[in-house]
Specification:
Elements (H helix, E strand, L loop, with lengths): L7 E2 L4 E3 L10 H4 L4 H9 L6 H9 L20 E7 L4 E7 L7 E15 L2 E8 L5 E9 L4 E13 L8 E8 L5 E4 L17
Antiparallel strand pairs: 1-2, 2-10, 3-4, 4-9, 5-8, 5-9, 5-10, 6-7, 6-8
This protein binds fe (ii) ion.
């Protein structure tokens, strides 16, 4: 899986996303297709409910061109591009190359929803087990227009498992901005190169 270029994990194992400052002083002008969503989010003065965020994302009509000023890709993992934010929300475009993936993570303290704008993403849901490891429970293919929602103790991993050259672009809302989510060890791994001495007997 790809790595994350701009985020870090502290010594407690909690994941602390680091986000660049907003690219625009006036995001409603820079992203007119998102104007009503941004105006709603700027009116929020507490944590938004997950259902409301989902509803806003389902009602959007948005394509890659609409997010062009925020469509920047990383070189070592997916890139988070801030469109607008306050202390109560963050709206971002995430850009993923083939093979990029989040860690397995939860969403402690935040309502998190996103819409697939271009490409097909994959979401893997997990549950905790008595031994402390997490176990996958569901896998969802997420085509363009798909809206995914998670909050608090929901554990998942999101990835671009499409073939090389196929990008994934997703539009995310976090309310409040996610500051400390925990990551978990899981079973996903790349297929090993068998090498010249490998044989199957
Ligand atoms: Fe998530």
């Amino acid at each position: 899986m790809g790595t994350i270029s701009s985020d870090k994990t502290d010594t407690s194992g909690c994941y602390m996303p680091v986000t660049a400052p907003p690219p625009s002083e006036c995001p409603t002008r820079t992203f007119p297709r998102l104007a009503s969503l941004i105006e709603y989010l700027l009116s929020v003065r507490s944590r938004a409910s997950l259902g409301v965020l989902e509803g806003h994302l389902r009602g959007l009509t948005v394509c890659r061109d609409d997010l062009a000023p925020a469509c920047a890709f990383g070189t070592r993992g997916y890139k988070r591009n801030t469109i607008a934010r306050s202390e109560y929300f963050e709206l971002l475009a995430l850009c993923w190359r083939s093979g990029d993936a989040t860690p397995i993570h939860d969403h402690k303290g935040s309502s998190c929803a996103f819409r697939v704008v271009e490409g097909t993403g994959t979401e893997i849901r997990f549950r905790t087990t008595d031994c402390g490891l997490v176990c996958p429970t569901e896998v969802h293919a997420m085509p363009p227009g798909y809206v995914c929602a998670a909050e608090d103790n929901d554990i998942h991993q999101v990835a671009n498992l499409q073939a090389a050259g196929a990008d994934l672009i997703t539009l995310h809302i976090y309310s409040p901005p996610i500051r400390n989510m925990c990551t978990y060890q899981g079973p996903l791994a790349r297929v090993n190169d068998p090498g010249p001495t490998c044989c199957a007997t």
